[in-house]
C-alpha cells in the first residue's frame, strides 16, 4: 500500500517556488568540483526518528499519525520497511541509517531477536536491489532495554559485556550484508552516574578491549566500513566517556585505536558539550578524524538533546565550510538525526522537515563554497598570524629557538603592538555572503 499517497516526487524548483513539497535551494544535479550536490552532501534519513518515533515525551503520550502503526510486532516492522523505501524514493535521498532494534523487535531471547533481524534484513536487501538509496551506517541499540542499566561494554556485569559483543557482532554482519559504508559506535550508557561506585579505569579498559574486538572481527569477515565514534557529553548518563571529539581522540590514542576510528559528529551533542558545531568539526578535521555528521540542531532555551531539524543558516554554512575544507566526508554523509516536533504529527510533516534541512545545508554549501573561493577567512587568519611567518615568529614555528633566546628577544622589546580582531566586521561579511547567496537565486 502507499503510505504517502498525498505526496508526489520532491523536485528542485528554485528559491521562488511556493510549493511546500519542493526543494528551493537543494539541487541534487548541480555540480561542484566534478561532483553533484547530491554526491557531495550525501544526505541520509534516520530510520528511528522518521519511522519509529511516536511523539511521546516524559510529559505526554505519542501524537504521531502513522498508518503503519496500526500493525504490531513483525507486521509493524515489515510495514515500516515498506513505508521507508516509499519515503526515500519520494524524497530522493541517497542514504538511510538505523539501529538494529529500529528495524526489528526484540524476541524473547537473543536467538529469536537475531531471527527477527534476519527476516527484516532480507526484506530491506530486496528493496535495495531496485532502490538508489544505500545504507550509510548501522549500529546496535545497547541503551533502551533494562539490561543496559549499567552500560554495555562498560557494564559492571561481565554477562552484559558478552551480550553486547554478540549484538555488535550481529550488527556488523548485517552491515556487511547490506553494504554499509560506515558503522557507528554510540555509547548511549557508556558512562557513569557517580564515581562513588565506579571503577573508571576498568570500565575504560573494557571499552578499549571491546572496540579492539570489533576491529578484529571486522577484519575476519572482511567488513570494510569506516568505524565511527559518536561523542556525547551526557544523557542518559551524568558523564559519558566519549564526552566530545577531544576526549574521544584522547581515548582512541590511549588505547591505540586512532588508526581505526573517525568521528560521527552531531550538532546537538556539540552544544550539549559546551561547544559550537563547527568547533567539533574543526577539531576532528585538523586531526584527520572527520568521518560523518548527524545533522540537527538543539534549542538554546532547552538544556537537553532536542534533535531539531537544522534550519540555522549560520550553523549550516560554518559546518559546510569545515566539510569542504576537509575535502568532503569520504564514506560519511549528512544524516538527519532529527525528529519533527510533537505538534507536527501529520505524515506530510516528515517531508517538510527533511526539505527544510536539505535546503538549509544546500544554502550553507553554496555560501561556504564562495567564502573559500574568495579566501575570506583564510586571508583574515593569515593576516592575524602574520608575525609567525618571519623573524622570531618563524623561529618559533620552525623550532629554531629556546627560552634563553626568547628572553633575549623579549628584553629588547620596547613596545608590543596588537591589531584588532575585527570580529564584528567579520560577522558582517558573513552576513553579506549569506544575503548575497539568497539574492543571486
Which descriptors apply to this entry?
eight-stranded parallel beta barrel; single chain; alpha/beta; 441 residues; 16 helices; two-stranded parallel ribbon; globular
Describe the structure.
The protein has an 8-stranded parallel β-barrel with strand order 5-6-7-8-10-12-13-14, surrounded by 4 helices. β13 (290-294), α11 (313-325) and β14 form a beta-alpha-beta unit. The protein is 47% helix and 11% strand. The chain has 16 helices and 14 strands. The chain is globular and about 80 Å long. The protein is an alpha/beta fold.
Which whole number gives the mean pLDDT? 97
Structural class: alpha/beta
- How many distinct beta strands? 14
Q: What is the H/E string? A: EEEEHEHHEHHEHEEHEEHEHHEHEHHHHH
Q: Strands of the biggest beta sheet: in what spatial order?
A: 5-6-7-8-10-12-13-14
Total of helices = 16
* % residues in beta strands: 5-15%
The profile of the biggest β sheet is: 8 strands, parallel, barrel
User: What are the low-pLDDT stretches, counting only 5+ consecutive residues below 50?
Assistant: none
Radius of gyration: 24 Å
Which descriptor suits the 3D outline?
A: globular
Distance between the terminal alpha carbons, to the nearest Å? 38 Å
| Helix proportion | 40-55%
Write the layout of secondary structure elements.
Elements: E1 11-12, E2 22-23, E3 31-32, E4 35-36, H1 37-41, E5 43-46, H2 47-52, H3 73-91, E6 95-99, H4 100-103, H5 110-129, E7 134-139, H6 158-178, E8 182-185, E9 191-192, H7 200-221, E10 226-229, E11 239-240, H8 245-254, E12 261-266, H9 267-272, H10 277-286, E13 290-294, H11 313-325, E14 334-336, H12 347-373, H13 376-384, H14 391-398, H15 403-411, H16 423-439
Parallel strand pairs: 1-2, 5-6, 5-14, 6-7, 7-8, 8-10, 10-12, 12-13, 13-14
Antiparallel strand pairs: 3-4, 9-11
Helix pairs in contact: 3-5, 5-6, 6-7, 10-11, 11-12, 12-16
Amino acid at each position: 500500500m502507499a503510505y504517502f499517497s498525498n505526496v508526489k516526487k520532491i523536485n528542485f524548483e528554485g528559491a521562488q517556488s511556493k510549493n511546500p513539497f519542493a526543494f528551493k535551494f537543494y539541487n541534487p544535479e548541480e555540480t561542484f568540483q566534478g561532483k553533484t550536490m547530491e554526491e557531495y552532501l550525501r544526505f541520509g534519513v534516520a530510520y528511528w526518528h522518521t519511522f519509529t518515533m511516536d511523539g511521546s515525551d516524559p510529559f505526554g503520550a505519542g501524537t504521531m499519525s502513522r498508518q503503519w502503526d496500526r500493525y504490531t510486532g513483525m507486521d509493524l516492522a515489515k510495514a515500516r520497511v515498506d513505508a521507508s523505501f516509499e519515503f526515500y524514493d519520494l524524497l530522493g535521498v541517497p542514504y538511510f541509517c538505523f539501529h538494529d532494534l529500529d528495524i526489528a523487535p526484540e524476541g524473547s531471547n537473543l536467538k529469536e531477536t537475531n531471527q527477527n533481524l534476519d527476516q527484516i534484513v532480507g526484506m530491506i536487501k530486496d528493496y535495495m536491489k531496485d532502490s538508489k538509496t544505500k545504507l550509510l551506517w548501522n549500529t546496535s541499540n545497547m541503551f533502551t532495554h533494562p539490561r543496559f542499566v549499567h552500560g554495555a561494554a562498560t557494564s559492571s556485569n561481565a554477562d552484559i559485556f558478552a551480550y553486547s559483543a554478540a549484538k555488535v557482532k550481529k550488527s556488523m554482519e548485517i552491515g556487511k550484508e547490506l553494504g554499509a559504508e560506515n558503522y557507528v559506535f554510540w555509547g548511549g550508557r557508556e558512562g557513569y552516574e557517580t564515581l562513588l561506585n565506579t571503577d573508571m579505569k576498568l570500565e575504560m579498559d573494557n571499552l578499549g578491549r571491546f572496540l579492539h574486538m570489533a576491529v578484529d572481527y571486522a577484519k575476519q569477515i572482511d567488513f570494510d566500513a569506516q568505524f565511527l565514534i559518536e561523542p556525547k557529553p551526557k544523557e542518559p548518563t551524568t558523564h559519558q566517556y566519549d564526552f566530545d571529539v577531544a576526549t574521544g581522540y584522547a581515548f582512541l590514542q590511549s588505547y591505540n585505536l586512532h588508526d581505526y576510528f573517525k568521528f560521527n559528529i552531531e550538532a546537538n551533542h556539540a552544544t550539549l558539550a559546551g561547544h559550537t558545531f563547527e568547533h567539533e568539526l574543526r577539531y576532528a578535521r585538523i586531526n584527520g578524524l572527520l568521518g560523518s555528521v548527524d545533522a540537527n540542531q538543539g534549542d538554546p532555551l532547552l538544556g537537553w538533546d532536542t534533535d531539531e531539524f537544522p534550519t540555522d543558516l549560520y550553523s549550516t554554512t560554518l559546518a559546510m565550510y569545515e566539510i569542504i575544507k576537509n575535502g568532503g566526508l569520504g564514506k560519511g554523509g549528512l544524516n538527519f538525526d532529527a525528529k519533527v516536533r510533537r505538534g507536527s504529527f501529520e505524515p506530510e510533516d516528515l517531508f517538510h522537515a527533511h526539505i527544510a534541512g536539505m535546503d538549509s545545508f544546500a544554502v550553507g554549501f553554496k555560501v561556504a563554497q564562495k567564502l573559500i573561493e574568495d579566501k575570506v577567512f583564510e586571508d583574515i587568519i593569515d593576516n592575524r598570524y602574520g608575525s609567525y611567518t618571519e623573524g622570531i615568529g618563524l623561529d618559533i614555528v620552525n623550532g629554531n629557538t629556546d627560552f634563553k633566546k626568547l628572553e633575549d628577544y623579549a628584553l629588547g622589546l620596547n613596545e608590543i603592538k596588537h591589531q584588532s580582531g575585527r570580529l564584528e566586521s567579520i560577522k558582517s561579511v558573513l552576513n553579506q555572503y549569506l544575503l548575497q547567496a539568497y539574492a543571486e537565486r
